[in-house]
Design brief:
By secondary structure, the protein is an alpha/beta fold. The chain is 43% helix and 21% strand. The strands form 4 sheets. Strands 1-3-2-6-5-4 form a 6-stranded antiparallel β-sheet, with helices on both faces. Strands 8-9-7-10-11-12 form a 6-stranded mixed β-sheet. Strand 4 and strand 5 form a beta hairpin.
């Protein structure tokens, strides 16, 4: 048994306050009477001697937690001993956590007592009587502190702590080995295989397939995994959880390997992968892998998603959304939508809060389809934002749309078991105009074009979610085209849909494909007017001045990125901030723009790029999201200056990842 007190014979020293009190008492007594003073001196010395011999019983911690007095080290050693043959590390501490004595196994564990003090502090934070896993010099122990009373021969009772440790290193190593050997399932998909094949001569197409197969097989071999081809563009991949950690460190460089495959002159190929971990069975891991792959494709492809429980990890996403000219799929979705709407008693359609022209335009497109089958359709919208005020004014003048918009309370009263709720331009319940309407719905249909988030609506009976599409208005226009002559668009509906496409493509400058122009041409033939659409984008003079101020005050970061703050004292400064971000992209040399504005407790950030910078990944670091070239975020409880610093930090982190 060893003692760490350093002085076994030494009694506790009196406190300064106690000495001062005794001196003061003696002085007062001398002033009153000399004889009384002499008696006071004798009494004080006797009291001081008794106090010193018995120990300071006032050493209890504040709060009255300890009901027993401290015992000094000498009394403790006389009344307490540690068995010499105790095989586990053991120590005795006072209730302050100071080590008083310990056995030899304890000394072997802690070559330096500073480490022991650190472990004691961990255990004190955990609480007495509770076990805690600690690591000391690479070994693991289950340690605990327990209170116990010590009764001296004279009947004095003191409280101490005893610390026990049990070596569980082998158990931890075994648990880690078992965890690392767990099989995880990966589902791999070549995003644009068919498009790449179409660009190659027929005699070179088998060569492309052979090269891809060889690269993926070699990748599986290098990672101690197994890769099997299911279809021409789909693979299943099995590996251990330990080898997956190695892939994480390399950030899944197989994506770069596939992108660099060169078989003649063709577009680069990209791949997506979903990996499922855990769940207790291979079947559950497979389901998680499929869900992760669906989410990866919903976010535009060219990325790897790992799903473990409810947690997602994202890797890649260095390319833009992969477009697919799949007209068959659009026709199938249109037929399914027609059947669902026909079987419903009523239809409610809603977009996201603070509706924009794409959201409201999509709602009006659904109303046009419902009218073609003589179904009642109402748009759920509680507040009219500045971004749609001109379109809303036109709707109010139109006889059909005079009563088309309802608020949440009225919508809930209209619902029954056969009501069909259609969600447009968002897939996240927290962003909806009315989450309560969604919760009450028995059947849900979802149309969206934003990159998919983990918290997406997952109980829709029909989902048309395409990240490659320019806008939700484009998807709804596709539906109308495939339904055919049954749907007759009113001019205000054609204008709204074209405005939705225009606002999300920044006047057909970004995310614009062949289908986008075909949709615009269809709307033009069905009554849309470009002049009326342009008038829907007009701002008042104060908003225009605010935008000019934000452009003027823009700060260049890293030489090619503009960061600015939009004044918040104008109506709907969020819309003005988004327009400012668009305008900054017209400046020569600017590759990305970030504009923030404060509204209430939130700072809204709008981000834009032409594709060289993935602003979606930057905004995700701030809790936001969006598209490769158009994205945004909301920051709570911070100033615009703090928001600018956070944006710069996110950009630095993104650039650092790009150079790895």
């Amino acid at each position: 048994m060893d003692d760490l007190s350093g002085n076994k014979k030494k009694k506790k020293e009196p406190g300064i306050v106690g000495i001062a009190a005794v001196v003061l008492l003696v002085c007062i007594c001398f002033i009153l009477d000399v004889k009384i003073g002499i008696g006071a001196v004798i009494g004080a010395l006797a009291g001081f001697f008794c106090w010193t011999m018995l120990g300071d019983s006032s050493g209890q911690e504040k709060g009255g937690e300890n009901k027993a007095a401290f015992l000094d080290t000498e009394v403790l050693q006389q009344n307490f001993s540690i068995p010499k043959n105790l095989p586990v590390p053991y120590a005795v501490l006072d209730i302050r956590g100071h080590i008083l004595m310990y056995n030899e196994p304890f000394a072997k564990v802690f070559s330096e007592m500073e480490k022991a003090d650190a472990v004691v502090e961990q255990l004190r934070k955990c609480g007495t009587g509770k076990q805690h896993l600690v690591e000391v010099d690479g070994r693991f122990y289950v340690a605990a502190l327990n209170q116990c009373d010590v009764v001296a021969e004279n009947g004095a009772v003191g409280m101490v702590l005893n610390m026990t440790m049990l070596d569980v290193t082998k158990e931890q190593e075994l648990a880690k080995r078992l965890d690392n050997s767990e099989t995880v399932v990966g589902m791999l998909f070549l995003d644009n295989y068919e498009e790449v094949v179409d660009t190659l001569p027929e005699d070179r197409q088998p060569l492309l397939s052979a090269v891809v197969d060889r690269k993926l097989t070699q990748f599986a071999t290098d990672t101690n995994g197994v890769m099997r081809k299911l279809e021409k563009d789909r693979y299943i991949y099995l590996l251990s959880k330990g080898d997956l950690e190695v892939l994480k460190e390399k950030k899944f460089d197989i994506m770069n390997t596939i992108r660099e495959i060169s078989v003649g002159e063709h577009m680069p190929m990209t791949m997506s992968m979903g990996i499922g971990i855990g769940g207790g069975s291979l079947d559950e891991s497979m389901q998680s892998a499929k869900a992760a792959l669906d989410l990866a494709l919903g976010r535009g492809g060219d990325q790897v998603l790992i799903k473990e429980g409810e947690k997602y990890l994202f890797y890649g996403a260095k390319a833009g959304e992969v477009g697919r000219n799949n007209r068959i799929r659009a026709r199938v979705k249109a037929d399914a939508l027609w059947e669902l709407m026909g079987a419903s008693s009523s239809i409610l359609v809603m977009g996201h809060r603070n509706a924009d022209l794409d959201s409201l335009g999509s709602c009006m497109g659904i109303c046009a389809i419902a009218r073609a089958m003589d179904k009642k359709c109402r748009i759920v919208m509680s507040e009219v934002g500045v971004g749609v005020k001109h379109l809303y004014a036109n709707m109010a003048e139109n006889g059909h749309y005079e009563t088309a918009i309802v608020k949440e309370a009225e919508a809930l009263k209209m619902m029954d078991d056969k009501t069909l709720v259609i969600v447009v331009d968002t897939h996240r319940p927290v962003m909806l105009e009315s989450p309560q309407v969604l919760a009450a719905a028995k059947k849900i249909v979802l149309f969206d074009h934003h990159r998919k988030s983990p918290d997406a609506i997952d109980n829709a009976v029909l989902t048309y979610h395409e990240a490659y599409a320019s806008s939700t208005s484009e998807l709804i226009t596709e539906m109308i085209q495939h339904i055919g002559k049954k749907v007759k668009l009113k001019p205000i509906e054609a204008d709204a849909l074209l405005a939705g496409i225009t606002v999300d493509t920044k006047n057909f400058a970004v995310k614009t494909g062949a289908i986008t122009f075909e949709a615009a041409g269809f709307l033009r033939r069905n009554g849309a007017d470009s002049i009326r659409v342009r008038m829907l984008f007009q701002n008042d003079i104060e908003s225009y001045k605010a935008k000019a101020t934000a452009v003027r005050d823009a700060e260049l970061f890293r030489g090619c990125m503009a960061i600015s703050v939009c004044p918040s004292n104008v109506e709907d400064s969020m819309l003005v901030a988004a327009q400012t971000a668009d305008d900054l992209m017209n400046v020569t040399g600017i590759k990305a723009s970030f504009v923030c504005t404060k509204v209430g407790e939130l700072v809204y950030v709008s981000a834009r790029s032409f594709g060289d910078i993935n602003v979606q990944r930057i905004m995700e670091k701030l809790g936001g999201g969006g598209h490769f070239t158009v994205s945004g975020a909301q920051l709570r409880d911070c100033t615009t200056e703090e928001a600018k610093r956070k944006i710069k930090a996110a950009i630095e982190e993104y650039l650092e990842e790009e150079t790895v």
